[in-house]
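Q: My hope is that you can spare some time for a protein that puzzles me. Underneath my words sits a plain record pairing an amino acid chain with its backbone structure tokens. Those tokens are not coordinates but codes from a learned vocabulary of shapes. Thank you; the sequence and its tokens follow:
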Amino acid sequence: MFTGLIEAVGRVAAIERRGASARLVVESVFPGEEIALGDSIAVNGICLTVVAREGGTVAFDVSPETLERTGFRQLRSGSRVNLERALRLCDRLGGHIVTGHVDCVALVAERRELSGNIALSFRIPRDYGRYVIEKGSVAIDGISLTVNSVTVDSFTVNVIPHTAGQTTLQGLRPGDEANIETDIIGKYVERLLGARGTGEGVSLDLLAKSGFL
């Protein structure tokens, strides 16, 4: 479990294809004694397990599912990646609940700079657009952000200067891809209500009948 507050930006040292899988090696700024084999680290919002550690690098095995569902295919040696270690129970939850399980890849549709801030608009597959709500939370390449506005297949976020300077968001341009994880709460609510078999979708009446209102 993660918060979406990036701890550091690392650099890809190597990517080794192994059939349908891959081995990813990342230069890490975390103290070696604080990283153990089996630890979970979110790399651009994707929860990966540390399988090797040597010097200032950590290695992860990347599954075929992860390669297919995320933007890892665009990573190259030297690419910058957002890093966050798993949440400890004693930590503050400064962002929102992020699982590190990416839902889809979105495309940057527009970038505008406003008084030092960066407004980024993303095109998202419609199947996932319904989980993004205005003033809700979304994780973009592992970064917890507030949604400013939404349509059926797009949303816009504002990136403050601090966040831009501490993450890879400052480098995003129209046409670039980004890993998207929508808010887990909305997905669970939809699943639970859908399991009732009403076929009527989510409505105020259904929420009231189910005890949510």
